[in-house]
Amino acid sequence: MINWLFVNYLRGKDNPPLPTQVTALAFLSSVVADGDVATDWLYYNDITTGEEDIPDWLITLQLVSCICGSLSWLGVATDGRFVSWVRSAAILIPALLVFIIAFPLHIIVHVLDRVDSYTGVFCLCFLELKDTMYENIKENVLTPLWLRAKQKPSFSSGTVLFFGILVEDIPQLVVTFLIEEKIKSDHPEGQISNAALVNLLFAIFDILHKLAQAYDLRKDVQNAGYAFKRTIKAHGFWVESLSLSGVNQILSSSFDTTAKLLDAVTGKCIQVFECESTVYGTVALGTSKVLAACKTAAFNNGGHIRMFDIATGALDYDLKLDFVPNFVCVYPADSGSFFTGGDQGLQRWHMPTESASTPQLISTYKVQGGVQSIAFLDNDTFVSCQGSSSVHVWHVNKEEPTHTIRANENDVQVWSVLAMSSTMFLIGNSNTKKGLIKSIEFVNNQWTICKTFDEHSNGIMSLTKINSSLFVSTSHDTTAKVWDITRAEPSSLFTFRGHISSVSSSVYLKEEQAVATGDKDGAIHIWSIGKYLKDEENQSLLQHAHNSDDDRISKRENQS
């Protein structure tokens, strides 16, 4: 009964109960599981208070079996929450011990800070310790442990049930047979006690029932927001951008001065591209070349677009820029040219060719305040965000924007832009107070803000398109969310919570029906969105069938 209540009334929207979990049969199964635990303890009470001479080791074994069974039952009854509580406690207890040791030392060095200088070298050593010790412990030990404790283990309900069979039902069945066999050997004329008989029947039924239930619930994933296919420890620091190179190959760029080509299936690094300074973005040129937008190693001295050979990782060409490039992207209508922009400019360049061995500048666009990113609405039109409240729409052959859209005053730092169609795009702000995403559509001959998506609690870091209706957002709040732009209510379909630091970038892996997200710690998590793609396909099929029925009815009415 308790499990049924937890499943039906305390689950979040990311993991709604299966249809089989809301039935009267599911309620009855939950009651039987509760009764099984109760009969275990009744039987233990019966053998400890009875007159039979049962060995202490058998009684102890029964007690251990009851305790394990109760813990297993708690895991199932609380819908997996008990497992999360135990895991969090196991992480927080060491963190508490570290804090108990570190905090008094922090107080001591603060007191010594006020002691006169004549106390000598001993005091000076402690003053130096004060500046680094507690902050290092807090940053490198306490904060990571706290973030780990907030994470929840992901597992299927079927796994929990099967584990319960192994640690509760089967041991309980064996122990009961051993005890009753001992009693019968002492009293050949005796019979199995009523408590033992009830316990045996419950145990046998519960084993068979749980095996069937575990099979049915094998895909009912608990804490699905924390589940991921694999993790790639790609870099030592921020994963600044992610993009695709061929099928299931990821290009990643980082603050650690490298760009890498990674296999999304195996997690192995295929190639490393050394850039000697921060890499803000990468893009593949077919299957042979990679472009990387890099900051110059010298402070405040512009940037580079570097071209690498994918097969060897060798640097083919280094294009010097007058500004630090925030991104680089290939022009979709002409793979022989690319766009780049940064703190002081937005430009389009031709790739090196046989006739021109160096990149040739095609256009310089008149921007104010720099460009953070751009997105192409079609082959002739693109939109740019400036890191301010203004968003500009451009024609590729015009140096000045054709439209300027100003968001609300709260959106003072529009950092991300994503094109969903030729007449609609999304913008995401990087404000620390609230991460807002807004859809802007071309309505009645003007660009208009239509919807606001406001579930993120911190700034938006990236936006990635899945298909014509689904997109993914990542945020400083350590989460990534899947959204459906066609929903009447702008609420997310799913929240991925597997990161413990700011989620800075994302890319869609179509072949795997998954999303790869990179974070501040240099980790890339790959997690599935197949369920939401299937739901959308099913809705499309239903809508198509509904439209076909309407067409047939309309034809009949016209014929009549």
Automatic annotation (TrEMBL):
Entry's transmembrane regions: 57-77, 89-109
GO cellular component, one term: transferase complex
Transmembrane helix is among the record's keywords: yes
The WD repeat ranges on this chain: 453-493, 496-529
Record keywords: Membrane, Repeat, Transmembrane, Transmembrane helix, WD repeat
InterPro entries in alphabetical order: WD40/YVTN_repeat-like_dom_sf, WD40_repeat_dom_sf, WD40_rpt
Domain of life the protein comes from: Eukaryota
Pfam families in the cross-refs: WD40
Protein's name in the database: Uncharacterized protein
Native source species: Ditylum brightwellii
